[in-house]
Amino acid sequence: MANRDMSLIHWHDVPAAAGLLTRVPVQVNTDLAIQRGPLAAWAYPIVGLKIAVAMVVLGLCAGWVGIAPPIAAGLMLALSVILTGAMHDDGLADSADGLWGGWDKAKRLEIMKDSRNGAYGVLALVLSVIIRWAALTAIVQTDHWIAALIAVAMLSRAAMVALMTGLPNARDNGLSQSVGRPKPVTAWLAIGVATLGAFFALGLTAGSLLIVAGITASLWAGIAHRKIGGQTGDILGATQQLTEIALLITLSAIL
């Protein structure tokens, strides 16, 4: 039983990942989830796929009743925030406040742990919402918007796993430290799942998205490593947001 539970893939990993990354009520075997820990990270792109499907359903319903694309895009964006509990948005805000509001590692980590948002965090949230809404508005008016949402949701979650693996924990406690660091094989599995999903959805266009996602995640990893020496849960949440923004911008330009 123990060997099976520590295998590369387990059926329970998807609900465990959903329980961590969303606010959707799911039945999770807590003991097994704790035992497997970072091994379940390969399923993060699957959770992204489920969120994308929910957004697609809402978008189709909005189009069916004649809601204008800008409003439909806003509703889909709001749904994604509700489903995730704004966890990734909060990570972006805290990261912006901490990384640019503190003068050394200790102060930056202290600011990131503070639940209050400063000017950097508020501006990061405002700009993130505006850019994502504008890009999504352009994308939903194309013939490939469903495929685009699926590819973006999966690839942006795979980027989180890559940083979890590639960067050490910046602090000795917190969400990221409690989950643990995945092994490289888990990260590659997550990337592989997301890549397959993106290519299945968008074909060769997915190649451009892989490059953009890789560059975005790498640049963000470099900033986090230089400023706080690694990653935290906030850094990982910001990774998802920044990668999503970069991919949406790319798709709004090429679709």
Description:
There is one protein chain. The protein is mainly alpha-helical and 255 residues long. The protein is 76% helix and 0% strand. It is built from 13 helices and no strands.
Summed up:
This protein has 13 helices and no strands. With 255 residues, it is an all-alpha fold.
Would you spell out the secondary-structure blueprint of this structure?
Blueprint: H1 2-5, H2 13-21, H3 30-36, H4 44-64, H5 69-84, H6 87-101, H7 105-113, H8 119-139, H9 145-166, H10 175-179, H11 184-202, H12 205-228, H13 233-254
Helix pairs in contact: 4-5, 4-9, 4-11, 5-8, 6-7, 6-8, 6-13, 8-13, 9-11, 9-12, 9-13, 11-12, 12-13
List keywords for this structure.
mainly alpha, 13 helices, globular
- N- and C-termini, Cα separation: 48 Å
Rg calc = 18 Å
Strand percentage, roughly? under 5%
Give a quick account of the main beta sheet: strands, pairing sense, barrel closure. none
* Mean model confidence by pLDDT: 94
Assembly annotation: single chain
Low-confidence stretches: none
SSE order, one letter for each helix or strand = HHHHHHHHHHHHH
The number of distinct helices, counting runs of at least 4 residues, comes to 13
Overall shape: it is: globular
* Annotation, overall tally of beta strands: 0
Give the helix/strand class.
Answer: mainly alpha
Share of helix, binned: over 70%
